[in-house]
Design goal:
The complex is a heterodimer of chains A (about 260) and B (about 325). Chain A is an alpha/beta fold. Chain A has eleven helices and ten strands. A six-stranded mixed sheet of chain A has the order 6-7-8-3-9-10, with helices on both faces. In chain A, strands 2-1-4-5 form a four-stranded antiparallel sheet. In chain A, helix 4 packs across helix 5, helix 4 packs parallel to helix 6 and helix 5 crosses helix 6. The longest helix of chain A has 16 residues. A two-stranded antiparallel ribbon of chain B has the order 1-2. Chain B is an all-alpha fold and about 325 residues long. Chain B contains 14 helices and two strands; from the N terminus they run αααααβααααβααααα. Chain B starts with 6 loop residues before the first helix and ends in a 9-residue tail after the last helix. Chain B is globular, with a radius of gyration of 19 Å. The chains are: A alpha/beta (about 260), B mainly alpha (about 325). The interface between A and B is medium-sized, with 29 and 22 residues.
């Protein structure tokens, strides 16, 4: 029965998941659990399969093998809209604003069609609340295309949050931001977690990721090569070799000297 | 949905009502004939706009719904002695069912592939009707003039059909407005802007697109019945003219895709221009060439159309021009 108990505290289980594109193995037999309420970081060199793993989790691609269990439901191979309706939202690495719609309409669409499926009027209130939360509310009436990169990243985040998810997948929300913007965004991520949302985050801005994550997993050539606390990961020789290259670099990155 | 609170809604409705009322006020047959064609164009363009403007799917063969609906309704009137009203509904239902079946089959295609498929569908349906004996094959069907007696004779019938098209136009415009400011409309516009992102946001894209396709097909199907009933005959090349589809696209693009007022403005302008060109000795054979040129110029220089351009230029007009 204790086993059952533990199961209930796991929001997402990735069981032996692989994704092949023809002969290319993008994700290879990856297995891990994501406990409820945690911030789990995902790192790995370019092309390691991080975004592909996200795409498989939220249904953009069906997995070639393996199963994805989200809140005790098998979501492997489900359509993205079915997955988000169950309460799993995501942002995109390359922002995808609905350009010809206003900021508010973008976020309202997230609330209308997300987990809670709100009617328009309630969606508007949720959207304004979420825009306030991510600090974009003063731009609510402008077209999404007129935002700058940092604001578009916030918009992505707001749209995903408006879906009121249990689990949020964040794909490089810090990339391309300046240090001030990064610090602000990290605060937003922390606040999201305080609201009880579990977060799974891909990030290249290493010191920020190491700061914000409870646990980190590392992908290299589609394989899961390490899993642990940020400190354990930074000390793991396999990770250093695969990803960071130089052990001393790892230390410096952790302290945030790269910026 | 509280569209009645918006000035843009009233502006649109009043424009249609005032324009449509002119023939009644003047009692002039010429006005009635002109307005009949203009309202028909507005209703067709506004229907297409639900798919083209809101969901962003270009249908090059949209006239197929007008033609098929028209054929079904006409057959029921001419051969099965149905009255005009149930036959008109049947035409709409037939067009809706065709759109539903097609939607399930070809709406998985995107962009140019979907556009090409819609042309193929129009040609396929035309060829089918051409060889379908029940619908008279290549000769088509004709109506016995005595049928008009049930509608008060040919003259009264002209007014009755005019009023029906007037009512249908008003219906399409109001429905377009309703969709635009609904949850469903927001989903369609999400699809138009980025279909993959829309799916990730939770829009059930296959269903939303099919719904939009069906909604954009029903009224054209009904209009076909009225049009051919009034015409007293229907034949394949008359019902499925590919260039009518293209003219519908020109109307939507000219006014501004995705706006409610745009197709209205575009259709009225284009139809008036067409009327002028067809009667002018210089241009009468060049009318379609000019339509093509117009489309090219719009796409190159004002891709958002006249209403879209005005909205982009003058932010204050947002609430008035939708």
């Amino acid at each position: 029965m204790t086993g059952q108990q533990a199961e209930n505290d796991v929001i997402l289980q990735i069981k032996n998941v692989s994704k092949h594109f023809g002969g290319l193995v993008a994700v290879s037999e990856v297995t891990f659990d994501l406990p409820r309420g945690q911030i789990l970081g995902l790192i790995g060199p370019n092309g390691a399969g991080k975004t592909t793993l996200f795409n498989v989790i939220n249904g953009v691609y069906p997995p070639t093998e393996g199963r994805i269990i989200f809140r005790d439901t098998d979501v492997s191979g489900k359509q993205p809209y079915d997955v988000v309706h169950l309460g799993l939202a995501r942002t995109h690495q390359i922002v995808r604003p609905l350009n010809d719609l206003t900021v508010l309409e973008n976020v309202m669409a997230g609330a209308c069609y997300g987990h809670e499926q709100h009617p328009l009027r309630e969606a508007r209130e949720i959207a304004l609340e979420v825009l306030e939360f991510v600090g974009l509310v003063e731009r609510y009436d402008t077209l999404a295309s007129s935002l700058n990169v940092a604001q578009k990243k916030r918009l992505e985040m707001a749209r995903a949050l408006a879906a009121r998810p249990y689990l949020l997948l964040l794909d490089e929300v810090l990339a391309g931001l300046n240090p001030t913007e990064i610090a602000e965004m990290v605060q937003v991520v922390r606040k999201i977690r305080e609201q009880g949302v579990t977060i799974f985050i891909i990030e290249h801005v290493m010191h920020a990721l190491m700061n914000v994550s409870d646990r980190v997993i590392v992908l290299d050539y589609g394989e899961l090569i390490a899993e642990g606390t940020p400190e354990e990961i930074a000390d793991n020789p396999k990770v250093i070799e695969a990803y960071l290259g130089d052990p001393k670099l790892a230390e410096r990155l952790l302290r945030g000297e790269e910026d | 949905m509280n569209s009645w609170k918006y000035p843009a809604f009233w502006l649109t409705v009043v424009v249609v009502i005032v324009g449509g009322a002119v023939p009644y006020v003047t009692g002039s047959n010429t006005w009635r004939e002109n307005m009949f064609l203009i309202l028909l164009a507005i209703a067709l363009a506004s229907s297409l706009n639900i798919l083209l403007g809101y969901a962003g799917y270009v249908s090059f063969g949209h006239i197929v719904f007008f033609g098929l609906g028209g054929y079904v309704g006409f057959y029921l009137i001419a051969e099965q002695a149905w009255s005009l009203w149930p036959a008109t509904l049947a035409g709409g239902v037939a067009a809706g069912i065709l759109a539903l079946l097609l939607g399930l089959a070809i709406l998985r295609l995107r962009g140019a592939y979907f556009a090409l498929a819609t042309i193929g569908v129009n040609e396929a349906v035309r060829t089918f009707i051409n060889n379908f004996d029940l619908f008279g094959g290549p000769i088509g069907l004709e109506l016995n003039f005595s049928v008009y007696r049930d509608y008060g004779g040919p003259a009264t019938m002209q007014w009755i059909t005019y009023s029906t098209v007037f009512a249908l136009t008003l219906l399409v415009v109001i429905v377009s407005y309703g969709i635009k400011f609904s949850r469903f409309g927001l989903g369609l516009m999400a699809i138009r802007e980025d279909e993959d992102a829309a799916m990730v946001m939770g829009v059930r894209t296959p269903m939303a697109k099919t719904m939009a396709y069906v909604l954009s097909a029903i009224v054209p199907g009904m209009l076909g019945v009225i049009f051919f009933f009034r015409n007293s005959s229907v034949e394949p090349h008359e019902a499925f003219r590919l260039h009518r589809s293209i003219e519908m696209i020109v109307m939507v693009m000219l006014g501004g895709q995705g706006t409610v007022l745009g197709p209205l403005f575009g259709a009225a302008t284009y139809e008036a221009l067409r009327g002028y060109l067809l009667t002018s000795p210089l241009f009468k054979d060049l009318q379609l060439a000019l339509a093509g040129l117009l489309l090219l110029l719009i796409i190159l220089f004002v891709p958002s159309g006249v209403i879209g351009w005005l909205r982009g230029r003058f932010r204050r007009l947002w609430r008035v021009l939708e």
